[in-house]
Amino acid sequence: MPDQNPVPDRPVEPPAPPSPPLTLRDPLPPVVDTAAALAETCAAVARGSGPVALDAERASGYRYSQRAYLVQLRREGSGTHLVDPIGFGGLEDLDDAIGDAEWILHAATQDLPCLAEIGLRPRALFDTEHAGRLLNLPRVGLATLVEHFLGRSLAKEHSAADWSTRPLPEPWLVYAALDVEVLVELRDLLDAELREAGKREWAAQDFEALLSFTGPPEKTERWRRTSGMHRVRGRRTLALVRALWLTRDEIAEHRDTTPGRILPDAALVEIATAAPQDMATLKGLRGLRGQGPRRYLSQWHDAVENALALPEADLPTVGQRTDGPPPPRAWVDKFPEAAARLARCRDAVTGLAEEHDLPTENLISPHLVRALAWEPPAEVSTATVSSVLRDGGARPWQIDLVGDPLVEALV
């Protein structure tokens, strides 16, 4: 029976019109790749005023190194400059031209190491991505922030390009220049929101800590992160994976090529699980039918032979050795007291993060919380807990907020 009182259809809201694209306000500058052009850039930057917006482009999916293949910078009164660092021994002259001016970076930890390699080191900085996190914005990518604060769309279609390509195509250069086009304006808007939220001092402490950032801590036994390790069984097969991984890594570093282009992970695991006893068997494996992997057949063969000849005592363990606590998922059954402490600490941190409108990981490092719950100080107090947090890299504002609540959770 048809409905006697049909509900009228609600009008469909028309989709919001797309934001106008961000465009360059000045003509695209030429790439700075000569000593004379670099001297002109340094002079122009030194004459400018205010903070300096910087960015760097790498070739992470194509090269082994994380070096910068293009440096973009913009400053009021100076304009935008696109510097090719490859032809220069270093950019110390540009660093001198910037002097004590504040750097504006987006996701500073991505660019600071490669910029330091070429002699560029900030004395002060403002990280727009980190500012967005402290404001607890749902998305903090550069394109999202530009859309949110400036109402412009910023295309990111060349972010994964091979920036070691020479010459660089003009569309790529436009993309690179746009990455610093509005960083100064974006910085000012984020700064105003941080002040309004009472978080500017927190940001200042975090930015100060970033000045000494040199890169993420070196991971031990990186070979264990090979894709497909779930198919590897037994210590001897693990030794084969390790030997092949280290051989591939050495070749990739020598050729400055990303390791996966030398030998894909799938092929590496195939060789390890097959454990070929001779060159003919090795050649017949599917993963070595391509011309690229076959170029290094003798190296793969030597790696396999060496791994098969290892004595039992030298084989890698099934589980990765670590100096820290075990994964928290194992605590409930084996270490119930530590699990209870961790649950209380996490509840305290979650409540504080909600109260102060922060992501929990920006309020305090989860690693520090786990370490405290696993092995609290012999005498739990505000002083001892604060000392552990400080030694772990927590900033004063973080310690002020979480110190006492963590003491209560630990006892």
What fraction, in percent, of the residue positions are helical? 40-55%
Which term fits the overall shape? globular
Query: What CATH architecture of the largest domain do you see?
Result: 2-Layer Sandwich
Average of the residue pLDDT scores? 94
Class based on secondary structure composition and strand pairing: alpha/beta
Sheet with the most strands: spatial strand order: 1-4-3-2-5-6
What is the name of the CATH superfamily of the largest domain? Ribonuclease H-like superfamily/Ribonuclease H
Q: Cα-atom Rg, whole angstroms?
A: 27 Å
CATH topology annotation of the largest domain: Nucleotidyltransferase, domain 5
> Stretches where pLDDT falls below 50 for ≥5 residues?
none
What is the number of domains?
3
Order of helices and strands: EHEEEHEHEHHHHHHHHHHHHHHHHH
Q: Indicate the proportion of strand residues.
A: 5-15%
* Tally of alpha and pi helices: 20
Biggest β-sheet: count, sense, barrel? 6 strands, mixed
Q: How many β-strands, per DSSP?
A: 6
End-to-end C-alpha gap: 66 Å
Name the CATH class of the largest domain: Alpha Beta
Region (Disordered): 1-28
GO molecular function, one term: nucleic acid binding
Domain HRDC: 234-314
Organism: Aeromicrobium marinum DSM 15272
